[in-house]
Amino acid sequence: MTRERKKALLRSLIDKVVLRRVAAERIGIRIVWRGGEISALEIEVAVSTHRALARGAEMEARLLALARQGVDDATIAAQLTREGYRSARRGRVSADTVRHVRHQHRVLRDWRRAHPRHVPGRLTMAELARRLKVPRDWLERRVRDGTIAVARDAADGRFLFPDTDATLARFEALKAGLVDHLDDLPSPDR
Questions:
Q1: Rounded to whole angstroms, how far apart are CA atoms 123 and 59?
Q2: Coil, strand, or helix at residue 158?
Q3: What is the pLDDT of residue 83?
Q4: What pLDDT does residue 190 have?
Q5: What is the pTM of this model?
Q6: Beta-carbon neighbour count of residue 94 at 10 Å?
Q7: Is residue 136 within 8 Å of 125, Cβ to Cβ?
Q8: Residue 157 exposed, middle or buried by CB count within 10 Å (0-12, 13-18, 19+)
Q9: Which residues pair with 188 in a beta bridge?
């Protein structure tokens, strides 16, 4: 049977379909058949956030309690699913939902900096951008297009700039448009 014929057959058998929102995440469906018989069922639907779920706040509290005990995200997701909780858009709790909720509440896992914040005698991209009062992207674009000629640091692979008044003066000149490129940046020892 073609799709159109199947639809036509259903239209001849069904008198009406009634949808009713039972809860934020559940819809009740009632099918009234031509002979007067009624079929009813409920389905779970996607919602915008886990907080819109009937047990959303309860799930969040349980999730955070497990996370603070050091349980990993995948295990928390599996445990919450077994306990009958679900994500906003799925019938189960995903590890991504767990991670998202943890981050919202600043329950961080094995947090440490990949690089030290400050290297003595050097400026990182972020530090230089703050000193020059420019967005970090302003510097990154100029490094990419060769306007600022700098090599990555051999020790940690970041772009590091000498933390000297001369370096800052040269960057200020670039920012003001007085020079069109920077190369041969002095080392921090100069």
A1: 44
A2: coil
A3: 94
A4: 38
A5: 0.48
A6: 18
A7: yes
A8: exposed
A9: none
| Other C-beta atoms lying within 10 Å of the C-beta of residue 1 | 8
161-162 and 26-33 as β-strands: parallel, antiparallel, unpaired? unpaired
Phi and psi at 147, nearest 5°, equal: -65, -35
pLDDT at position 187, please? 55
| Residue count of the chain | 190
Q: 176-190 burial by CB neighbour count: b if 16+ within 10 A, else e?
A: eeeeeebeebeebee
For residues 181 and 173, what is the distance between their CA atoms, to the nearest angstrom? 10
What are the tokens at 91?
């019938």
CATH fold for the domain made of 122-176 = Multidrug-efflux Transporter Regulator; Chain: A; Domain 2 (1.10.1660)
Give the span between the Cα atoms of 149 and 173, in whole angstroms: 15
* Residue 128, C-beta contacts closer than 8 angstroms, at least 6 positions apart: 139, 161, 171
The pLDDT of residue 112 is: 54
Residue ranges, the chain, pLDDT below 70: 110-116, 186-190
Residue spans of the domains in the chain: they are 3-44, 50-104, 122-176
Contacts 24+ apart (CB under 8 A), 48-56: 48/88, 49/88, 50/87, 50/88, 50/97, 50/101, 52/24, 52/25, 52/88, 53/24, 53/25, 53/85, 53/86, 53/88, 54/23, 54/24, 54/25, 55/84, 55/85
